[in-house]
Amino acid sequence: xxxxxxxxxxxxxxxxxxxxxxxxxxxxxxxxxxxxxxxxxxxxxxxxxxxxxxxxxxxxxxxxxxxxxxxxxxxxxxxxxxxxxxxxxxxxxxxxxxx
Length: 99
What we know:
Blueprint: E1 2-5, E2 10-15, E3 24-29, E4 32-38, E5 47-50, H1 65-92
Antiparallel strand pairs: 1-2, 2-3, 3-4, 4-5
Keywords: Coiled coil
Coiled coil: 65-92
């Protein structure tokens, strides 16, 4: 896992789960892990899986929306580029793909 932390309070951890074929990223804000971004679909569509962050009744977590949207866009591009590189490497090595 590799992490990067921005000045806005967001932290990104790149993850490679055993049951995933491609790199994914978790976004945290403060002490809360907010979501997972992944590119596992055959059509290469990005998916965002939001985690439950409400630990106690009345608990809330507010994040800066514009910064979150910019981060999602940046991570989406990075993950799609990483998937394309992996698929190209696999094709060059003769590994069959899902297409």
